[in-house]
Design brief:
365 residues; alpha/beta; Aspartate Aminotransferase, domain 2; Aspartate Aminotransferase, domain 1; 2 domains; 3-stranded antiparallel β-sheet; 14 strands; 39% helix; globular
């Protein structure tokens, strides 16, 4: 008998999942069989529906963590004469830039402070000064801090200047309402184990069909060629080029069903927001301040300043909360000591109330 989870994962992913999502993995599938491939096709169609892309968009699933899909998009999109502008205000913007740099791509990086929104005026000035820029890439929810970047003005600039816009929506898709058509997102990237509340094993890309078709032959990576993966799935009704994470795929289909039963993305967004609001109030009452201003905070994860107390250590807090049934995340902000608490996944307001009560029991700050 497999024991129930001993704690909730209050992290940006992997997340706590429902018992029924986990139970969906309790059988095996043949990757060539039409029964399995029909599941893949259902997932692909449902993802396009969630993106509101309609017939102009398609979806591609890619083995590995979400970062594999980010790299697949860059290998597939960028030609030798392309230039990518990465707009960064945290670790995951830096990661996108590092991938492009290691590919040998032409790259420019606009770096903003971790606690600040990207400035569209600075972005537009850069586009004016560097007409060779062909692609813009940025992160929607920067989980370094919990910042919800306002991507719409940047996407509007990409359309105005006729650039291809790439959005890393790893930690937001399925948990925050958006429409890939307005403002236009050419390539959106996310992962199975984030707001849709599946388990790790694959990422996915929502892509404008015309843009994706125009990328054929670009990729210098065989495994990460998004066009080849897409064409195989299209022509073979859901077949992957290489061995797919079958159990993860089946769990993801169950997670999509549970998203719909909850009321869709709008309803899940409201639950995540309520989780966040309860957490913020409770931590403030305990004397712990959020790193970001309220208008910049996402409903995904929140960074908190470490208490200015010589008795505080993150390790001690981590283990005390783990003993109470909660796992939190260390900080990643470079300019201040912080720790992070996620409020997504199969986590509900009652769970956050219990977390706050556990924090209030800890008296070393």
């Amino acid at each position: 008998m497999i024991p129930e989870n001993p704690y909730l994962l209050l992290t940006p992913g992997p997340l706590s999942t429902s018992r029924t999502v986990r139970a969906a993995m309790n059988r095996d599938w043949c990757t060539w069989d039409s029964d399995y491939n029909s599941l893949v096709q259902k997932i692909r169609a449902r993802l396009v529906e969630l993106s509101q892309g309609g017939s102009a968009y398609t979806s591609v699933l890619m083995q590995g963590s979400g970062t594999f899909s980010v790299e697949a998009v860059l290998w597939t999109c960028l030609k030798p004469d392309s230039t990518l502008l990465v707009i960064s205000n945290g670790a995951y913007g830096k990661r996108m830039a590092r991938i492009a740099s290691q590919m040998g791509a032409n790259l420019r990086v606009l770096t903003f402070p971790e606690g600040s929104q990207p400035d569209p005026k600075v972005v537009e000035k850069t586009l004016q000064e560097h007409p060779e820029i062909s692609h813009l890439g940025m992160v929607h929810c920067e989980t370094t801090t919990g910042m919800l970047n306002r991507y719409a003005p940047i996407a509007d600039l990409a359309s105005k200047w006729e650039k291809i816009f790439i959005l890393d929506a790893m930690s937001s898709f399925g948990g925050i309402p958006l429409d890939v058509r307005s403002p236009k997102i050419d390539f959106l990237i996310s992962s199975a184990n984030k707001c849709i509340q599946g388990v790790p094993g694959f990422g996915f890309v929502l892509a404008d069909r015309t843009r994706l078709q125009g990328c054929e032959g670009n990729s210098k990576s065989h495994s990460l060629d998004l066009v080849d993966q897409w064409k195989t799935m299209e022509e073979n009704q859901g077949k992957w080029r290489f061995t797919s994470p079958t159990h993860t795929v089946r769990a993801f289909l169950q997670a999509l069903q549970e998203l719909e039963e909850e009321g869709g993305v709008a309803a899940r967004y409201q639950r995540y927001r309520l989780n966040h609001e309860i957490l913020i109030r409770g931590m403030e009452n305990a004397g712990i301040r959020a790193f970001l201003s309220a208008e910049d905070q996402s409903p995904i994860i929140t960074a908190f300043h470490e208490p200015e107390n010589p008795g505080f250590s993150f390790e001690k807090l981590y283990h005390l909360l783990k003993s109470e049934g909660f796992v939190i995340y260390p900080g990643k902000v470079s300019q201040a000591p912080t720790f992070r608490i996620g409020h997504i996944g199969h986590v509900f307001p009652a769970d956050i109330h219990r977390l706050v009560a556990a924090v209030e029991k800890i008296k070393f700050w």
